[in-house]
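User: Predict the structure for this protein chain, please.
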Amino acid sequence: MFKSFRQRLSYRLTRDTVLVAMAVGLVLNLIQITLDYFDARDSMEREVQALIETSHSPASQIAYNIDMRLADELLDGLLQHPAAIDARLIDNEGQTMSASSESSPESRYRWASDLLFGADRVFRESLRVPQLADLPLGQLVVTIDTYHYGIRFLERATYTLVIGLLKSLALSGVLLAIFYFVLTRPMLNVINALSQVNASSPEKVRLPVPENHREDEIGTMVGIINEHLENMDNSVSQLRTAEATMKNYSSQLEQEVADRTREISEKNDALQRGNRALVKAKEDAVRRARTRANFLASMSHEIRTPLNGVLGMLGLALESEKDQGQRNRLEIALNAGENLLGLLNDILDISKVEAGKLSLESIPFSMRELIDECTTLHRQQADRKQIRLVSETDPDLPASFLGDPTRTRQIINNLLGNAIKFTDTGSVKVRTSWTGGSLRIEVIDTGIGMSEQGLKSIFAPFSQADTGTTRLYGGTGLGLTLCRQLVEHMQGRILVDSSKGAGTHFTVILPLAVAEANTRLPAPETALKQPADQPGDQPLSILLVEDNRVNQLVASGLLKKLGHRVDLAENGERALAALGKRRYDIILMDCQMPVMDGFEATRAIRQNPDWAGIPVIAVTANALEGDREHCLASGMSDYVTKPYRRDELRAIITRWAPQAGP
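Assistant: Here is the predicted structure, written as structure tokens:
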């Protein structure tokens, strides 16, 4: 009941009005009390000062005549004032001539008085007589207890606050009654009338306008409600007409919706079947592509192994052959084998990209040195064709970049090789610059150029500019395909601009990061770790771990010609047995072998303290992803690729040979 009363508008209006009135009244009362406080302080000052001025002349005569009896009477008279608690006459030397005092009154409200006015006040007045104005006679000192004035102020303040509260309460009652009769009761009448409206036929009811409220807000509100009820009457009539019309079409609409739903369901089922077929076809295509790429990579690796043996045996035969005609035939066979090996390398790299198995390094390297290395490699071919090979490197090119130097070298070598191959006169230019945070490598030649149709298919595998190009210059067209795939794998771009008979301009843009100035550049490509130890050539005891008989003959023949002693082991297990019998200076370890491969054998060697310091050189066809990482992880010291070559073997053995004694 009380909760319902508190929610009434009259109660809330009264409450808000009273709260505001009480707040305003409290502020005004506080202002009045504050003014009264300052007035009480001033009144105390004036009253005491008047008391002292009245006593000034008698006190001066008493001090002049030194009449102690009159002094006592005067001081006792001053203590008759309800606020005076001490009065005394002081001579010029500060001695008390006469004094009279009494104790201060006790009260439980004294703390409030002392807080506002202080516990007491001391008033002093200098004494002089008119006939001797320049002669000081001492002082009249009166001490006043402020409680007399403080208690009167507190009483007045209390009365003010209580009366203000009573006024607010009276105002609350009056406003509550006014708001109830003027506002709440008419509103309740309207609400009661609204509550009697039938929800099923609200248009049949009109609200009565409360008496004496026709022109005010309540009358206006009732009029608006009646207008809405009138509109509802019209709307309900229209709705009923529309409802009757809708019922006539409901059966037809339901049948149409059912037909459309069935059609959509059938089409959706067909679409889902088609999507499933497309997804399966895509998965099958991706799986077949990866299977083909993996098969191609595996077959390339298997083909490289005997081909490396063929190239090695041809190299050995070429070194021992004295007959010039026979040497020419061997050189032709060796060049053909090396071309075949290059083709296999390109096929293998393309298959790696397509199978998603091509991994890129991110190591610091010098682009300036890499460009010089590539141009030096191709300079002999250019000189043989009497073509100028020019290298233009931006002087502001950073000292080193972070990236994959091997793949970058492969891109440049392919572009340079193509440019020289298809240029008969003029020049081939390599231009290197650093702009916009990207490395820009341009290979420009004055060769045969390409037609517009040739530009469209130049990066497709097994494609060249036209059919006559293959007959005149040879080649498979895999080089540029590999370049494009490598560049895109490095998040870069390769562009080509050419016209028939006017040369070709290739542009490679690579987003390589610049290495810090103090970054240490790595050793040459074949070295994984850098030893301390560069001794001169000396006979060494070498263990060759190789499962292929041809490669055994090639490698052992080259090593023996270099003056070293060689023992053979067909797999890692026999290598461990050989190490148990004698000490070796260097181990050449093939990575892929039966029984125990080179990685497992190297880990076993590193776990034996007696063998831990022996350099283990990894030997691999460099065909499978992760060879370099596996070599490092298993503890191998360095890295050399097949086919075996005399210069590479001599360099790596010299690098890791034990340091000669003093």
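Residues 217-320 form the longest helix (104 residues).
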